[in-house]
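Exercise 7. Given the encoded structure of a 104-residue chain, write a plausible sequence.
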């Protein structure tokens, strides 16, 4: 009986966490659309990607689907690569230029 109660409490905790992540999604979306600068919007989009990784991980746990962790890892890698590419584009104006010519 004690195991059943502990399992229910843990599941409730993950459900509350999922709800809070969905709330953070909505706040991040507001920040993406209202950000005062382009860089604030990029940071918000990167935060949205991080929240997506968390959401996929928790959803995989709640549904008993461990393959969601693999999807979350792939999404995290794509999130980092896209953030670097977007920031490089805004800094240099072109993705094909090298960083050698930039001396600040």
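Solution.
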């Amino acid at each position: 009986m004690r195991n059943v109660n502990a399992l229910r409490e843990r599941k409730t905790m993950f459900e509350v966490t999922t709800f809070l992540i969905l709330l953070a999604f909505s706040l991040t979306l507001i920040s993406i659309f209202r950000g005062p600068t382009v860089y604030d919007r990029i940071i918000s989009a990167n935060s949205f990607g991080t929240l997506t990784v968390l959401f996929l991980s928790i959803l995989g746990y709640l549904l008993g689907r461990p393959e969601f962790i693999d999807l979350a890892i792939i999404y995290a890698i794509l999130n980092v690569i896209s953030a670097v590419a977007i920031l490089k584009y805004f800094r240099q104006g072109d993705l094909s230029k090298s960083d050698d010519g930039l001396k600040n």
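Remark. The chain has a mean pLDDT of 85. Students should compare their own answers with the one above.
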